[in-house]
Amino acid sequence: MSSPELCITIQCQNGKVLSQNLINFGEYTIGTSADNSIPIESEHVSRHHAKLSVTEDSLVFEDLGSSNGSIINGTSVKCPTIIDTNQTVQMGDLFLTVQTYSQNASTPRLHFSNDMVGSGRYTLKQEVGRGGGGVIWLSHDQHLNQSVALKLLPPDLENDPVALNDLVGEVQKARLLSHPNIIRIHDYIRVPDETPFVSMEFVDGSDLGTLRNQQPNGLFSWERLEGLVNQMCSALEYAHGEQIIHRDLKPANMMITREGNLKLADFGIAASTSEKSPQANMEGDASGTIVYMSPQQMRGTMPAPSDDIYSLGATLYDLLSTHPPFFKGDIHQQVQQEPATSLSTRLKELGITNNIPAHVESAVMKCLEKNPADRPETIKELSDLLHPGAHPPPPPIPPPEHIPEMESVLAEPIETTQKFLEKNIPPTVKSWWQTQTPKNKDIILVGVITGILFLAEIIFSKLQGDNLFDSFSNPRLFLPW
Ligand SMILES: Nc1ncnc2c1ncn2[C@@H]1O[C@H](COP(=O)(O)OP(=O)(O)OP(=O)(O)O)[C@@H](O)[C@H]1O
Ligand SMILES: [Mg+2]
Fold first, then answer.
1. Could you report the per-residue pLDDT of 271-283, keeping only the tens digit for each?
2. Does residue 130 line the site of ligand 1, with CB under 6 A?
3. Contact, 223 vs 213, CB < 8 A?
4. Does the C-beta of 251 come closer than 6 Å to ligand 1?
5. Is 153 in the pocket of ligand 1 (CB under 6 A)?
6. Among residues 407, 412, 426, which one has the least CA distance to residue 144?
7. Burial of 49 (C-beta count, 10 Å sphere; 0-12/13-18/19+)
8. Are strands 38-39 and 26-31 parallel, antiparallel or unpaired?
């Protein structure tokens, strides 16, 4: 296979590009010392700050014990971490982005608080996360006077009409979904000379990937997950019923509100906005994050509910054991051919304990079967396997983990928008006739007709030189000539 053409861009906070380097497979060290493969200058970056390993399957970023650390998706990097192309990593005060290289590739565009986008309708307030598919900003919508989340799309996408078209189709479908455990997609907005973006419901909370990193062993107990999994299943059952497949289920796309409820992010849209890895890019239409991706989705076959069932299984496997089923080496080959190691064996291999009930382990492993026919057929079936018996699963608990305060207001329910509209939109203009009741309209019509007849009689009797109402006693044709 030919090596990928990738470009590492290092930028300051104000967007100024400090360096751009073309890279292939191999290991690249980054830091202020001249002996690094990518030397950079900054007081806040260490001499040997980080290492980037580019293999056939993945891009892995590792912080080499730097003093100011590195941050991915708002979380400090503790161990080698798989990153996506277009995903930005903060190193000290600088930002590193790896993009697929093309002659006319644009530099990653950075935005800042109080920037206005969408022809001035939205004000960016605070960056809340970055992923392969863009940068998420808590923003203020001036028209609706409401907080929203904006997903500013990666610069590469602007030059890719096929991907943009795919995204528009996905947004059209996702906008129709209305479920308490699914983040509402509002719109796709593209105006000249601006980064296109998707506006959606803002969730005041955190995602399951970030919350998991706060756990003592980096994993969740089944008791903590059970209520959330029930909400995941409810959202997916509804969406599959509407013929919509998520295509990118993973911990980062599962948001948890401050109250502890789960909301699935990026329905349908994540897979069309991200080039998840050099490999995914090369294989054309395979999209979605590869370590959670079903063998069928990886091969680019028609999306099916069984893809989401596999990804949900891989996500639960990861959350319960610290790693997805396949995470090192040739992931493509393993996802296609190697049976997944059972959860209990994996925990033993990693020397970790987690009390996972046997029925949960067997349900998760069933989702990871290579053949879709061997997986639970529907989300309902999976849900029954995870929660057997007559007792309903417990409701989720408010997150005991730390969720950072957002600078601005919190998610507003749809009723707030309705009240705002009721107060601010002027009443529809109606004519006097439209305001009358049907009975009044009848009376008015009879009155008007009688009046016209009376007037006609006055004119007629004048023309004939008769007395008023003579025409009643002496009927004749009205012939003024
Ligand atoms: N609607 C939202 N409200 C609040 N925070 C959000 C919202 N959507 C995403 N986030 C946060 O932003 C982070 C980055 O999201 P983003 O979708 O860009 O990346 P990702 O989920 O890691 O990857 P992908 O692009 O594959 O979905 C998420 O991990 C989550 O913490
Ligand atoms: Mg996402």
1. 655 544 333 333 3
2. yes
3. no
4. no
5. no
6. 412
7. buried
8. parallel
Catalytic residue among 248, 307, 308, 318: 248
Does this model's pTM top 0.70? My answer is no
- Ligand nearest, relative to CA of residue 133: 1
Q: What is the pLDDT of residue 385?
A: 97
Task: Give residue 416 CA to ligand 2 midpoint distance, Å.
Answer: 26
d(CA 296, CA 306): 9
Indicate which atom in ligand 1 lies nearest the CA of residue 265: 8
* Protein residue with least CA distance to atom 5, ligand 1: 203
CB distance 105 to 7 below 8 Å:
yes
Split the chain (481 residues) into runs of 10 and give each run's mean pLDDT.
71 75 89 91 90 88 90 79 84 85 58 89 90 86 94 80 84 92 95 90 93 88 96 96 93 94 86 45 46 94 95 97 91 95 96 96 98 98 92 83 62 53 62 82 90 86 78 61 48
State the Cα–Cα distance between residues 135 and 131, nearest whole angstrom.
6
Active site residue 248: yes
pLDDT at 44: 87
* 300 CA distance to ligand 1 middle (Å): 24
Handedness of CA 345, 350, 355, 360 (dihedral sign): negative
Cα distances from 269 to residues 99, 161, 246, 305, in angstroms, run 20, 15, 8, 16
> 103 alpha carbon to ligand 1 midpoint, in Å?
29
CA of 431 to the centre of ligand 2 (A): 50
Q: How many residues does the chain have?
A: 481
